[in-house]
């Protein structure tokens, strides 16, 4: 017979948890339950406290429609969003029609062009003020530019007079061949004279055209410079007046 003490030795021992461990586990479960409960309460409170908005519009037929969500009849109309007390919260504008979108794009393009024009003008104004310190400097620069082109015109006219004399000499020589064929070298001399004359006439014409452009450009720059000076003077005057008014007001307060 097996001794009874053998079974007692083989039977598993029941291990009792430490008192501290049981307390920690209970506290953790209680904290989790409280957290989940608080989250649920917040969610319920949030859902119940959220104000119920309403959406309304006037249909094409002139009827007022209203709903908790934007009604389908309002898809192409302005939608008024109302607070629970009936006051207006906001207006959701109707989608643009193709014609309106086209017009909107055109207006945006015009606005971009105007903004680009303003930026370009501002850049030109800065360059103008950095280049010249006075109207007299603008006039001097204009005169120098014209002087250079006038030199081209003077040289072209001198050469044209020279070619005119050479042409007269060729005409005199050609009289000997009035009743017979003109020699090849004489024909070539005529062609060369005509080509050189045409070239100098073009140089003179181009230089004259450039002088007119120079006058127009410097006249515009001169006028713009005077406008900028006037605007700067008015801005300075307004700033000084504002400073005087501020100083007077401060003096009265003291």
Descriptive account of the structure:
It is a single chain. With 254 residues, this protein is α+β, with helices and mostly antiparallel strands. It folds into 3 domains: 54-95, no CATH class; 96-131; 134-237. 72% of the residues lie in helices and 7% in strands. It contains 5 helices and 4 strands. It has a 4-stranded antiparallel beta sheet, with no helix packed on it. Helix 4 (135-174) runs antiparallel to helix 5 (184-253). The chain is elongated and about 115 Å long.
Structural features:
disordered N terminus, 4 strands, alpha+beta, 254 residues, single chain
Sequence-ordered SSE layout with sheet pairings:
Layout: H1 4-10, H2 19-49, E1 54-58, E2 64-67, E3 79-82, E4 88-92, H3 98-131, H4 135-174, H5 184-253
Antiparallel strand pairs: 1-2, 1-3, 3-4
Helix pairs in contact: 4-5
The largest beta-sheet arranges its strands as 2-1-3-4
Mean pLDDT: 83
Give the total of domains: 3
What fraction of the residues are assigned to beta strands by DSSP? 5-15%
Total helices: the number is: 5
How many E-type strands? 4
Overall body shape:
elongated
Could you name the ranges where pLDDT drops below 50 across 5 or more consecutive residues? 1-41
Q: What is the string of helix and strand elements?
A: HHEEEEHHH
Helicity range of the residues? over 70%
Largest sheet data: 4 strands, antiparallel
Radius of gyration over C-alpha positions, nearest whole angstrom: 49 Å
Q: Output the structural class.
A: alpha+beta
Q: What is the multimeric organization of the chains shown?
A: single chain
């Amino acid at each position: 017979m097996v001794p009874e003490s053998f079974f007692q030795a083989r039977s598993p021992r029941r291990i009792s948890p430490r008192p501290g461990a049981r307390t920690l586990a209970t506290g953790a479960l209680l904290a989790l339950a409280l957290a989940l409960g608080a989250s649920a309460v917040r969610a319920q409170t949030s859902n119940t406290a959220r104000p119920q908005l309403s959406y309304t519009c006037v249909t094409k037929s002139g009827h007022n429609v209203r709903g908790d969500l934007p009604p389908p009849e309002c898809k192409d109309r302005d939608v008024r969003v109302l607070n629970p007390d009936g006051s207006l919260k906001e207006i959701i504008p109707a989608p643009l029609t193709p014609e309106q979108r086209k017009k909107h794009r055109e207006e945006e393009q015009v606005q971009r062009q105007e903004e680009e024009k303003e930026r370009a003008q501002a850049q030109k104004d800065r360059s103008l003020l950095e280049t010249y310190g006075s109207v007299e400097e603008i006039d001097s620069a204009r005169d120098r530019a014209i002087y250079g082109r006038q030199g081209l015109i003077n040289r072209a006219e001198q050469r044209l007079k020279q070619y005119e004399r050479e042409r007269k000499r060729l005409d005199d020589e050609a009289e000997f061949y009035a009743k017979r064929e003109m020699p090849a070298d004489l024909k070539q001399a005529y062609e060369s004279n005509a080509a050189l004359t045409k070239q100098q006439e073009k140089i003179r014409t181009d230089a004259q055209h450039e002088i007119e452009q120079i006058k127009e450009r410097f006249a515009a720059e001169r006028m713009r410079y005077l406008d900028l000076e006037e605007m700067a003077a008015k801005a300075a005057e307004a700033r000084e007046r504002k400073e005087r008014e501020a100083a007077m007001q401060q003096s009265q307060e003291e």
